[in-house]
Amino acid sequence: MTVNSIMAFRDEKGNRVEYKILDEIIVNKAGYLIMAPVEDKTSYEFYKLKFDKHMNEELLSVDDKSEIEMVKKASHLQF
């Protein structure tokens, strides 16, 4: 994944939603993405990268406030 690239997902209703990758960082040996919906660049979302034993990538939503703060501090973005 590359910063400033666009990723598309399907929401729970099956609608296509596009996100722009704003930052990709490593904190405490874990990879994180900070993304924003293309339609609303003021709404930041935080995801943790996870790989299974076959190296398939999965994005896990980060909801823990302390983990989000840790990622924010490591990012170059202004929040």
Describe this structure in words.
Helices cover 13% and strands 47% of the residues. The protein has 79 residues and is mostly beta strands. A five-stranded antiparallel sheet has the order 1-2-3-4-5. The longest helix has 10 residues, at 65-74. The chain is globular, with a radius of gyration of 13 Å. The two termini are 22 Å apart.
Question: What's this entry about, in short?
Answer:
By secondary structure, this protein is mostly beta strands.
The largest beta-sheet arranges its strands as: 1-2-3-4-5
Largest sheet: 5 strands, antiparallel
Alpha-beta content class? mainly beta
Radius of gyration from CA coordinates: 13 Å
* Low-confidence blocks of residues: none
Query: Kindly, what is the distance between the CA atoms of the first and last residues, rounded to a whole number of angstroms?
Result: 22 Å
Shape: globular
| Average pLDDT taken over every residue | 91
Strand content: over 45%
Number of helices: 1
* Record field, number of beta strands: 5
Order of helices and strands: EEEEEH
Helix content range of the residues, please?
Answer: 10-25%
